[in-house]
Design goal:
With about 600 residues, the chain is α+β, with helices and mostly antiparallel strands. Helices cover about 60% and strands about 15% of the residues. It has 14 helices and 14 strands. The chain has helices at about 1-60, 65-90, 95-120, 125-210, 225-265, 285-295, 305-315, 365-400, 410-440, 450-460, 465-470, 490-505, 540-545, 565-575; strands at about 270-275, 280-285, 330-335, 335-350, 355-365, 445, 450, 475-480, 485, 510-520, 525-535, 580-585, 590-600, 605. Strands 2-1-5-4-3 form a five-stranded antiparallel sheet, with helices on both faces. A five-stranded mixed sheet has the order 8-10-11-13-12. Strand 12 (about 580-585) and strand 13 form a beta hairpin. Helix 1 packs antiparallel against helix 4, helix 8 (about 365-400) packs antiparallel against helix 9 (about 410-440) and helix 12 runs antiparallel to helix 14 (about 565-575). The chain is elongated, with a radius of gyration of 64 Å.
């Protein structure tokens, strides 16, 4: 502030002095100009007045009396006024006053002689010549004095100009000195500010960099009580608070890390955590044991079959959470085959940026063996029951058709009910056998290139009688110019038959079931053809929609017959075609069961369930 105040004072002083000097110079120049103009007019008037008086006297000599007297008096008056004006003017040259006094005395003598000449009663030649000679000398002296006065006035004007030039030079020198003083004040203020402001700021900047690099012990010296001192104090307090916060946070992070490690260590299944480059960054004890047994303990990558799936997840950005045993990977450990179901989850920040991958290998060996035992038992029991059931069913048909004898009304009703139960049980056994076949391993598909319209029309023809028996109308809608799909016609026919059967079963009498084919896309946005069956039934509540494709699942509260296997088998068939199946439903507004088939298949086998 002192430096800036000094600089301001110098600048203000320079401005005020410049204004004052310019004003004085202006006044001086105006005075010189005014005096020069006034003196010039006075001298001019005196010369004109002298000439007029001389001319009047000459006119009088030749006999022009009254007019000459009047002209003389006018010239005399003008000369006197000019002389008086010259006496009143400020005189800068010392000899100007003396010249004016001489001029005044000479003019008085001339005027007295002229008046005497004008009063002569006898104008003899001798008298006239004497007076005229005297007046001529006095006129010459007056004109000479006027010329001398003009010269003195010019000298005074020249002197005034020199004085003005001297004042200007003096002003320039003084302003130059003041500019030098202002420059010195500026340099002093600049270097003072550099030392008092920039140096503390450099120190603060260096301290901020140190804090940014984690050195929270860094402090800034407080050298003043001004704003910089307050800033330095605030920074030191902030650094101290950050240090306390870092200490507390480090303790909490250490405790949290230990908790996470202990939690992961308690997992019976191997857990691997990969960094953003795909290298293994952490693994729990179960993962260490697996790595040792698979001979990749010192390797930073996962086994090839798991690592390939991790790369797919990282590329697609979608977590991999399989539930089917067909997705399990097999490792040969301790002389036996072990099966693990890989679950791969992307680790993301709050902003959604991926920074790692978590891989859990769930050991499903025991469950897979149990599932095989269950499937084999179901297949065996179903096959063993099918033969005697076929004989019982045939006997019931023979009895119902009265081939072996007549039946009364009550007997006919009992046989009819038994026949329907036998048909339903046989259908259930067939479904169980089909499901067992699907679960036994990959089964080749007999793929054919078929148009979507042919698929829908074939399904409508095969189920027309079933719908007609339930007083339900089947309608089809097929979008034009749909591309062909590769399917196993027999298996896709089963899917359509199951969906249409369920739709007819739950539709009201006189209702409609709509079969539709149109363009669509899979969940991974691949192009496909979308087939759907829509009914006008009671619909499926949201909590049951995710379970309807599970085995033996039936929506609670339904009074319709069925073992709950049809949709599960349909799902296995659609998945075998690399497709997807789902349901869209609202309670009271019917249901739409749909499945999508890709235009190009990646594989041509049925997976395990």
């Amino acid at each position: 502030m002192l430096g800036l105040a000094c600089l301001l004072i110098v600048v203000l002083a320079m401005g005020l002095y410049s204004i004052n000097q310019c004003s004085e110079l202006g006044k001086s120049i105006q005075k010189i100009s005014r005096d020069y103009d006034q003196a010039g007019r006075n001298l001019q008037e005196m010369k004109k007045g002298g000439a007029a008086m001389t001319s009047a006297l000459l006119s009088l000599a030749i006999g022009d009396g009254e007019e000459s007297r009047s002209a003389f008096e006018t010239g005399e008056k003008n000369f006197q006024e000019a002389l008086d004006s010259e006496k009143k003017r400020s005189l800068d040259e010392p000899n100007e006053a003396a010249l004016i006094e001489k001029l005044s005395g000479a003019f008085e003598s001339y005027r007295a002689g002229a008046h005497a000449f004008l009063q002569l009663s006898e104008k003899t030649d001798t008298t006239w010549r004497a007076e005229a000679n005297k007046l001529g000398k006095e006129t010459t002296m007056i004109l000479d004095l006027v010329d001398q006065l003009s010269t003195a006035h010019e000298k005074a004007l020249t002197k005034g100009g020199k004085n003005s030039a001297a004042d200007i030079n003096r002003t320039i020198r003084l302003l130059t000195l003041m500019m030098i003083i202002a420059l010195a004040a500026f340099l002093a203020a600049f270097f003072g500010l550099s030392h008092g402001l920039l140096n503390p700021l450099r120190s603060l900047t260096a301290s901020i960099k140190e804090v940014g690099e984690g050195n929270l012990d860094q402090t800034v010296p407080v050298l003043s009580k001004d704003e910089l001192g307050l800033l330095a104090g605030s920074f030191n307090r902030m650094a101290a608070q950050l240090k306390v916060y870092k200490t507390n946070t480090s303790v909490e992070l250490l405790r949290l890390n230990e908790t996470i490690r202990a939690t992961l260590a308690s997992f019976p299944d191997p857990v691997f955590v990969l960094n953003s480059e795909g290298a293994v960054q952490f693994r729990n004890p179960a993962a260490d044991q697996l790595a040792v047994k698979l001979l990749f303990a010192g390797v930073t990558r996962l086994p090839a079959q798991v690592d390939a799936k991790v790369e797919e997840v990282r590329a697609s950005g979608v977590d991999y959470l399989p539930t089917a045993f067909k997705d399990a990977v097999k490792f040969f450990i301790d002389g036996q085959d072990r099966y693990f179901l890989p679950r791969i989850v992307l680790l993301r920040t709050e902003q959604g940026k991926t920074f790692g991958v978590a891989v859990i290998l769930e050991n499903v060996t025991r469950m897979l063996l149990l599932d095989d035992v269950k499937s084999n038992m179901i297949a065996t029991v179903s096959h063993e029951l099918k033969t005697p059931l076929t004989s019982v069913r045939m006997a019931l048909y023979l009895l119902f058709e009265k081939t072996v004898g007549g039946l009364n009304k009550k007997q006919t009703e009992l046989v009819a009910a038994a026949r329907e139960d036998a048909d339903r049980l046989l259908k259930t056994l067939n479904d169980l056998l089909d499901l067992a076949k699907l679960e036994q391993g990959p089964t080749p598909l007999e793929l054919k290139n078929v148009t979507p319209r042919e698929i829908v029309e074939t399904a409508e023809r095969s189920m027309r009688e079933v719908a007609h028996a339930a007083s339900v109308t089947l309608k089809i809608t097929v979008a034009p110019n749909l591309p062909n799909v590769q399917i196993d016609p027999q298996r896709i026919a089963y899917v359509f038959a199951n969906l249409i059967t369920n739709a007819v079963k739950f539709s009201p009498t006189g209702g409609e079931v709509l079969l539709r084919a149109e363009l669509g896309q899979t969940r991974s946005f691949k192009p496909c053809v979308r087939f759907s069956v829509s009914d006008q039934g009671p619909g499926v509540t949201p909590e049951h929609q995710e379970h309807v494709f599970e085995r033996f699942y039936r929506v609670p509260g339904t009074n319709k017959s069925g073992a709950g296997l049809g949709l599960s088998i349909a799902r296995e068939i659609v998945v075998a075609h690399q497709g997807e199946i789902g349901v869209i439903s609202e309670p009271g507004r019917g249901s739409e069961f749909f499945f999508v088939l890709p235009l190009v298949l990646e594989t041509k086998i049925v997976g395990t369930g």
